[in-house]
Write a structure and sequence with these properties.
Layout (H helix, E strand, L loop, with lengths): L1 H5 L14 H15 L2 H10 L11
Length: 58
């Protein structure tokens, strides 16, 4: 996901420590928000039912 935020010119290789901690945190937050939007995550947390049979999946 780094490429969406930081452009194509930077090279990112898994397992290599070439990205800054800030860039990594930004990429993780972007990916997390893309996969589970903040509103849906908040609604899930408010339900308080953290069991597999209670999770709504498409």
């Amino acid at each position: 996901m780094d490429i969406f935020l930081h452009g194509k010119k930077a090279v990112f290789i898994d397992g290599e420590e070439q990205t800054s901690a800030r860039e990594e945190e930004e990429a993780n937050a972007f990916a997390g928000d893309l996969l589970i939007p903040k509103q849906e995550y908040a609604a899930f947390g408010q339900k308080g039912a953290f069991f597999p049979e209670k999770i709504d999946a498409p």
